[in-house]
Batch of 2 targets.
Target 1
Amino acid sequence: MTAVRPDIAPKQAPEATRFPTGFVWGAATAAYQVEGAAAEDGRTPSIWDTFSHTPGKVHNGDTGDIAADHYHRFRDDVALMKQLGLKAYRFSISWSRVQPTGRGPAVERGLDFYRKLVDELLEAGIAPVATLYHWDLPQELEDAGGWPQRVTTDRFADYTAIMAGALGDRVTTWTTFNEPWCSAFLGYGSGVHAPGRTEPASALRAAHHLNLAHGRAIEVLRDQLPAGAQTSVTLNLHQVRPLTASAADADAARRIDAVGNRIFTGPMLRGEYPEDLLADTAHLVDWSKLVQDGDLAAISRPVDVLGINYYTPTLVSTPEKGESGSGNDVHGASEFSPWPGSEHVAFHLPEGKARTAMNWSIDPNGLYNLLMDVSRDHPGLPLMVTENGAAFDDYVSPEGRVEDPERIAYLHGHLDAVQRAVADGADVRGYFLWSLMDNFEWAYGYSKRFGTVYVDYASQRRIPKASAHWYSDVIRRHALPEAGLS
Ligand code: FCB
């Protein structure tokens, strides 16, 4: 469905470079990555507190105890967002801050933080976009079995009701989960994320329960939120590509697409798990027992928007081509596979492509293709890019500036990809840059800087990087600058 383009494009008129009316410009963070205040006002540990405090799990022994201290500095941070011209802020709620044991009544002091944050945003004219779960399960629920246990979905439904009650009058866009693939397969498969378990069967069970918890949360939100509120889920859909045109590599790509993407989009958007996924993983779980009557109907409750996070494509082949494991370490290396049932697929880094500080290859066409693929496979479903961005080795110059031309180029390329997808028919409603500011990058601790705002962790001073000024300008124009002028 690629539109025919003239060989020599005329110098673009300003209208051609503008984004659709109403296109939302935002930036994103997540609770454990920015808030800090880990033990304040009644908050109890989540699995990420436990994991980061376990020696050897996180680079340099870093933890989210203080992080970017957003809990105390949110007013200044919102002021900065306003100054940059952001129209929306995507943040997540720390479950163990508002419901410390993951059960029972909420803690008002915890809820107050989010009420104040949301009020501050609304006051600044910035739309709050709340994610209920960005990987930080209350530790007590993990102690009771965590996501591999079905009962955790009951807990999540209760927690959702608490949050809808507390913020439903002022937050109009709600996301159930951020990247459930990471929660299930990095948390319970490769073990590079909390809770650090390496049990392929548990990872699959977790995936089903995350799906079910999503569906149950959508039901709660629909019941409790006023008409007009938007519900969504954010998936890190893998843009999977076979290394060669061989049938074997196509099969490797199919397998990774099944356990990376369709394990979520299947039940959520089509009301069924893909047959090939069930076959690939039948030796690990008895799906006929795991998926109970009514589950698929619950999981497939419609969402208003699908959030898509994209950073880099995934290049795969059969194992014969070697390099097994390489490129398989997104978010951290492990001897255990995050791909249950497809452990032997080999991962590759494309040659000749620039990479970010995460060693992720830079490929804006991957985002274009992803948006077009999802639009084709799920027509009529509005999309939102809920994360996109890059880590580079940023530093403060003697003059006190942070120049990040690579990030500007990355953002420009990916926003151009979004714009091309929109021009070619994809219904993309907005874009959230990851991240508003440098933060705790999970297993990499503070060693990777994704922010468009630099954080000097010693002083907690914020310094907008050159890319922040560039992004601000894009927002103001509602258009990309012509190439070369950025
Ligand atoms: C995504 C996560 C986000 C951040 C970026 C770099 O997978 O959702 O928290 O770690 O990667």
Target 2
Amino acid sequence: MELPKRFTLCFGDGIGPEITQSVLKILEASGVPLSYDIIEVGEKLYRRGITSGIDDSSWEVLLKNRFFLKAPITTPQGGGYKSLNVTIRKTLGLFANIRPCQAYAPFVKTRHPQMDLIIIRENEEDLYAGIEYRQTPDVYQCLKLITRSGSEKIIRFAYEFARQRGRKRISCFTKDNIMKLTDGLFHQLFDSIGQEYPELQKDHYIIDIGAARLADSPERFDVIVTLNLYGDIISDIAAQIAGSVGLAGSANVGSHGSMYEAVHGSAPDIAGQNRANPSGLLMAAVFMLNDMGWSQYATLIENAWKKTIEDGIHTPDIKGEMTRKMVSTTEMTQAIIDRLGEEPQQLPTSRPSTHSQSLRDFSNLVQSSCSENRPCEINDGPIRECVGVDVFIYEPTSQAHQIAARMLPILNDLGYELVMISNRGVKVWPHGRLETHCVDHWRCRLMKKNKQNAIRLGQLLESLENHGWDIIKTENLYHYDGKPGYSLGQGQ
Ligand code: NAD
């Protein structure tokens, strides 16, 4: 099969152009027969008023080439700009983010010389859905969206990855002691899909203690699979304790393409100073070459890079006892080029990939075995029955018992029972506590009195509004096969 010959490239912001030039020089010196198309994304487009940071012509290039080497981008804070990274990952369906975190001891200082782990992060869901609202003058909301199909996809991917790459243990990090439905689903799928992988050791950690253990003794971990936000945070911790955030590369894969980038950001504090470490983006490029099938070049570059690190040729961010010469970005680039063809003496020598499947092959395999491609199963799924509705209201001046007293007579006539009022998730009626701090945003849980009756939301809302209630939103309460598909209020 003919290997891909072209990839898409962007120079990024901050240190992006410096480290991209470095990587291009090394790729060229390696002789890999690749060319590229440059797209302009990020800060310059944001400044032109394109809030997405990317224009239509770039999408065409990305879809044509499928492989994208992306330098870090600055996302302006505030002002409604959307993160370009998140937009690209989600638009192209790059559902898996793979972040290896490896120590290069003793050449790069770390307290964890044995560290060699891979974080597989769900890339499309969670709080990164970016659905946020200011619902009242006081209350802001960000929706955490977790799907069964998305969770199944990333968990299967992680198991397949661990199996294919000969890894021994896989750990799942969630916060399902608090988020029982969303994180609970992820944990439950990790356990059930895990039965198909008996050769792998498995464990689950609540994210807080998991992160603490990871920071303290990362050697105990091998492959970690987790949700989007947790994965983002723990992969920076892991990259930092491995030696530097400047060293790690990562891949984002899906069936419509893949994007390779450094774990770090655009480092505006050192931009233009010729002191950025190009290693993170170089390792991302190595990842890409392996995935494209150009493994011999990936190996050539990785070994030259390891030899450079072993020789103590270091940028300032990894300066330590083993540094023999502290160098600029351009000097490091030249040192790597000078060592093409050499192998490290102490760090493990890289060998051309013998993996029968690239990350993108995995992603296709996983997608085809996931239930989202089997709509019949979803249609034959659980029986869904609407049993009530949570009505969220804005009420800045009343107490919970006053709200209940005003609402109860109206609901009685409409065939609903008010079973609970909560404020910021905690039950405040009936039997609330005076100590609970309440804001202007209340959730009133209404259950149907007669199960046979349909929920007539329009009628309910009209009636409440006619009685002067300021309704923010509603959320239907469903039972699935008779089990609640909603959480109880804290204290309910
Ligand atoms: P950052 O990773 O850019 O910088 C954190 C620290 O690490 C800084 O002190 C920086 O100098 C240092 N550092 C990072 N990369 C380095 C390298 N290659 N060599 C030497 N030192 C390096 O994180 P930040 O400061 O929080 O974010 C800066 C900008 O980057 C923000 O606009 C953020 O939105 C963006 N960002 C982009 C990406 C991406 O494009 N994938 C990822 C994270 C952050």
